[in-house]
Input
Amino acid sequence: MNVDVMIGALPKLLEGAWLTLQLLFISGFFGLLLAVPLAIARASPHAAIKALPYAYIFFFRGTPLLVQLFLVYYGLSQFAVVRESPILWPILREPYWCAIITFALHTAAYIAEILRGAIQAVPPGEIEAARALGMRRSTTMGRIILPRAARIALPAYGNELILMLKGSALASTITLLDLTGMARTIIARNYMPLETFLMAGLIYMAITFVLVRGLRFIEHRVNAHMRPRPTGPAKATEEAPAGLMPPS
Amino acid sequence: MTGLRTTALALTVAVATAVSAGSAFAADPLRIGTEGAYPPFNMVDENGNLHGFDIDIANALCAEMERECTFVKQDWDGIIPGLLAGKYDAIVASMSITEERKQAVDFTDKYWTNKLQFIAPEEVDLDISPEGMAGMTVGAQRATISAQWVEENMPDVEIKLYDTQENAYLDLEAGRIDAVIADMLVNYEWLQSEAGAGFEFKGEPVFENDLIGIAVRKGEDALREDLNAALTAIVEDGTYAEINAKYFPFSIY
Output
């Protein structure tokens, strides 16, 4: 073990970590946007509506992320139509966007499935109550079901985010110098895989730690109404946002 | 004499492999690490069998040394760490003998001589001087002397590093990169293929006399000397020339 090597590699590795974070959050954002309609359609009782999201989710969960990444990066570029397209090629020629597109499509499938489960886990009584108040289906979905499902899905979503952080290491196979790609490039020069990968691993762990903490904080906030009231007087009303008071 | 040497070798191998492989006998096969993604030097066929120039040379050396050999397929950027970790005893994978690598491993004598040369689309007029290449994107395989050569000699070139040489060619075809720099003979082989139509060598080789050797762990002198003796023998008895002719119409020694 050579600690000097580990420290020497740190600046370059942090540069790689920055790219890893970009890939994670940009793809995570688009993945989430795509997942919501997918999950709503997937939770529909109508076979015709849920067929398409079902096939989508089945494909992206059923094939390895590496295969999907190679299909987008090396696969699409085989078609002259793609290469000559003035709209597609400026995006698809960049490994950066290929990685973000693939990761977003991939994570969307998983998030959609998590959300679908959460939508179906919303207590039927709450939906009935919304109906009884005269809310339309779309209003019920937007005001009652989705916010409630989001809270239920949060822990599982955090898990998915952490899995994607590690999945993003595959970006190194399409020439990107993310944290893993940078580590491999450094090893090509110093032949010290133990020290270099260990340092990279520590950075991944540090990122995971921050993610876990951040998610726990959000969970704590959005589920404030689920916590037992503090025994002290007053205070409690400030914490719980209006309309989310405990049922009794 | 041979008997003594074999015993000495067996002892060395026994000591070296005891850590990783457990039991070791004199009859233990020599394990050779290679990449299997570097045509025509080492590649895998449809059935997953390794073949190519490196494999033929390794088999000829093993026959000469009267030792049984097994091959271990290992990705390129982990090939030296794999040797050091004792996953195999020698690397026959067209590895250039460089000062940096000598810090980590020992090399035999050369078994072929490499040159580095650029390839690019035929229709492109490429000036391969550092000034002429400024601002261009060049592909190379990660952890190769080609990659290192560009980094050291063409500071204004953007370099893209690939896991395998084949992936670099895919991106050259796709037009994501302007040129590829690689071992001349590997480029030669690719230019002969269907995919390589429309591409050509650009300029003269930028680096000559790049010697290719077999890597062994440091201190394994008996194995290294045995390999050197076998190498000399196959060059002298014409086995080498025969293998050479299978792949190239000119000598690459």
User: Anything to note?
Assistant: Residues 3-42 of chain A form the longest helix (40 residues). Chain A has one domain: 3-224. Chain A touches chain B at residues 74, 77-78, 83, 93, 95, 173, 175, 177, 181, 184-185, 187-189, 191, 193 (CB under 8 Å).
